[in-house]
Amino acid sequence: MLFNIACNGTTHIVDCLILAVYFNFLSFSFPFLATSRWAAIATLAVPVVVGILNAPPLRAQSPRPLPAFEVASIKRNTSSAAGESIHIQRGGRFDVQNMPVRFIIWNAYKLSDYQIAGGPAWIDSERYDIFAKADHDASPDELFLMLQTLLEDRFSLKVHHETRQEPVYALTVAKGGLKMEHAEGTCVPRDPNHPSLPAPPGEKPPNYCGNAHRSGHTLGGRGMSLAPVLGVTPLATLTGQLSSILDRTVIDQTGLAGIFNFNLEWTPTTVAAPASTDTPGPSIFTALQEQLGLKLESTKGPVEMLIIDQVKRPSEN
Q: What is d(CA 292, CA 282) in angstroms, rounded to the nearest whole number?
């Protein structure tokens, strides 16, 4: 899912999070801000891609001490305002506004909403504001681990992880052959916890991996691999972007290696039908074949799932 994420006081959100474009995901300002069935109410602020790069590792409850916020305030949001947001600021500030608990959980664990199962109905309907601060200028990775700790401590969240056989899409090369162009050279992985250094005078900036740009029904990428490789996280890849858009895991079965540049334009199936005088655009499935020479086939495959065993309404501040 793509959601609205603001990273104040930083020069490159992509570098400080990135956070979509959760994603879409949530989806891109900030995805991991992407994308899913909630995409219609989410907004993306450039330059964040759909989701987050270098997401913190998943974990279930563990006796091993993990980072926690120094202070945190949690309040039920009963306003009728639409939309939700996460704001990360320098100095260890981490704010969540008007967000359902299920959203908070899958953002904390850097998953898509289709990877979360279980939990009572109220975690989809009740929205909360969280205003928290670390005791130091914590990195985005640390802050999201702190959010996991907060969920355990204040929402009594208990989870476990499973790998299930679920519906997925297999990405293959279409009969007509590949239509994407190979990018020249190699790409440089981004470090979301450290800003990128500017290029020396007279030199070109590095070709960073996964320079994706997404707006509405268009998706483009430069220096993007098809599937995750060392140093390149899912939302810096074409399969990661497609998973966020389609709300289903996409597995690379093309057999292709290297990095690519591409541009994809399609008509979302969730938008209103065009006027009779307009020519309907292609679906994303058709666009992939016609524009990139790729094909999506429905099948079943392993999907990492986060199972909610217990969650309670938060304790008082």
A: 13
Closest listed residue to residue 219, CA positions, set 182, 277, 170, 261: 261
**In total, how many domains does the chain have?**
2
- Alpha-carbon distances, residue 27 vs 5, 30, 109, 156, 234 (angstroms): 10, 7, 14, 27, 12
Mean pLDDT, the chain, whole residue set = 77
What torsion, rounded to 10 degrees, do the Cα atoms 9, 15, 17, 21 define?
110
Segments forming the whole domain that contains residue 66: 4-159
**What's the per-residue H, E or C state across the chain?**
CECEEEEECCCCHHHHCCCCCCCCCECCCCCCCCCCCCHHHCCCCCCCCCCCCCCCCCCCCCCCCCCCCCEEEEEEECCCCCCCEEEEECCCEEEEEEEEHHHHHHHHCCCCHHHEEECCCHHHHCEEEEEEECCCCCCHHHHHHHHHHHHHHHCCCEEEEEEEEEEEEEEEECCCCCCCEECCCCCECCCCCCCCCCCCCCCCCCCECCEEEEECCEEEEEEEECCCECCECHHHEHHHHHHHHHCCCEEECCCCCCCEEEEEECCCCCCCCCCCCCCCCCCHHHHHHHHHCEEEEEEEEEEEEEEEEECCCCCCC
- Give the chain's end-to-end CA distance (angstroms, integer): 30
Same domain, yes or no: 136 and 251: no
Residue at a domain's end among 121, 140, 159: 159
Q: Which residue has the higher pLDDT, 111 or 50?
A: 111
* Residue 314, preceding peptide bond in cis (omega within 30° of 0): no
Residues contacting residue 80 through CB under 8 Å, at least 6 positions apart: none
pTM of the model: 0.69
Please write the tens of the pLDDT for every residue from 168-178: 999 999 999 99
Establish if 58 belongs to a structural domain. Answer: yes
Q: Same structural domain for residues 84 and 154?
A: yes
